[in-house]
Design brief:
95 residues, alpha+beta, 5-stranded mixed β-sheet, 5 strands, 38% strand, globular
Length: 95
């Protein structure tokens, strides 16, 4: 994929998003969608992610993240567009 076709989103998710398999859920779905990026827990209880790829696939992952795995409850999601992005592949969990 060329950089022209790629979009990049910086995402913060709040709610019950830690200790419920959220990062593994995001990584699995991002890899199925062949997206680049990473996901990690933050000390304040939120989850942070960088997601890059074709717009339709990035938006699909964001829709999946809004629901999350069964035990998760997303109460808020903040999404910003990044102009410069080189998140790396394969999609990974950061610690």
């Amino acid at each position: 994929m060329s950089d022209v076709d790629k979009i990049c989103r910086h995402i913060y998710l709040s709610g019950r998003v830690q200790g419920v398999g959220f990062r593994a859920f995001v990584r699995k779905n991002a890899r199925l969608l062949d997206l680049e990026g990473w996901v990690k827990n933050l000390p304040d209880g939120r989850v942070e992610a960088i997601v890059a790829g074709p717009e339709k696939k990035v938006e699909k992952l964001i829709d999946l993240m809004r629901d999350g795995p069964d035990l998760a409850r997303v109460s808020d999601i903040e999404i910003t567009t990044m102009e410069v992005c080189n998140p790396g592949k394969p999609f990974a969990i950061k610690y």
